[in-house]
Amino acid sequence: MRRYQLYLVDRGVSPVSLNAAITGLKFFFGTTLAKEALMAKMHPVYLPRTLPVILSREEVGRLIAAATNLKHQTVLALAYGTGLRANEVAALKVGDIDSERMTLRVEQGKGQKDRYAMLSPILLERLRVWRRVARAQGKMLDGGWLFPGLNPIEPLSTRQLNRAVHAAAEAAGIDKRVSMHTLRHSFATHLLEQKVDIRVIQVMLGHKKLETTALYAQVATDILREVVSPLESLRTD
């Protein structure tokens, strides 16, 4: 097992893929074969923690406006306005919209858990416009996917969603590395800068641990700008 781990390292396998392989092997030998001793010296590789890319509010606006069609504009607006993951956006159905309670139902998100996402009035209006247009064009089935693929029976894939956001970023002249997850990061950071309680943001994002959400405190630049440096209080005369 150790030689296999070194073999993966020599082949240049990324730390994420290496850890995934180790996890799979631990399950196979420890749970399936009940031979935990074989994996005793197999340890995961340390992953350096990097800060996420964050878009400014102005950049988010440009990104959404630069999307090539109404469907993609609505998708990007929803991803930013709710903080949902790409697969959660793709899995939304028309019936998940609750305009009375102003929520979106997220079924079986990460960790196979259901939760609700916020639904702002502006986003609700965007969704209504998209639904009217899509139904008129025969692209949306009754009770079907909120964002259907070319075949209305199937939803947009996460790969298609990322293609859409990459194309929009290029059209908007945004040089940062942008993905669907960038909109989720930007959603959380902007809420934190608006003084929304971090525990509320944790619930909105569906994070199990508060420390995961606390990462955004390191990239909330509006909060940093409000802090007065102790240098300002020094007397220099």
Can you give a write-up of this model?
The protein is mainly alpha-helical and 237 residues long. The chain has two domains: 2-39, no CATH class; 57-222, Intergrase catalytic core (hpI Integrase, Chain A, Orthogonal Bundle). The protein has eleven helices and three strands, in the order αααααβββαααααα. It has a three-stranded antiparallel β-sheet, with no helix packed on it. The longest helix is centred in the first third of the chain and has 18 residues, at 15-32. It starts with a helix and ends in an 11-residue tail after the last helix.
CATH architecture of the largest domain: Orthogonal Bundle
Largest sheet: 3 strands, antiparallel
For this structure, the CATH topology of the largest domain is: hpI Integrase, Chain A
Number of beta strands:
3
What strand line-up does the widest sheet have?
Answer: 1-2-3
The average pLDDT value, as a whole number, equals 87
Class by alpha and beta content = mainly alpha
Q: Separation of termini?
A: 67 Å
Per DSSP, the total helix count is 11
Q: Which radius of gyration do the C-alpha atoms yield?
A: 22 Å
Uncertain stretches of 5 or more adjacent residues: none
Share of helical residues: 40-55%
Bin the strand percentage: 5-15%
Total domain units: 2
Would you state the CATH class of the largest domain? Mainly Alpha
Shape: globular
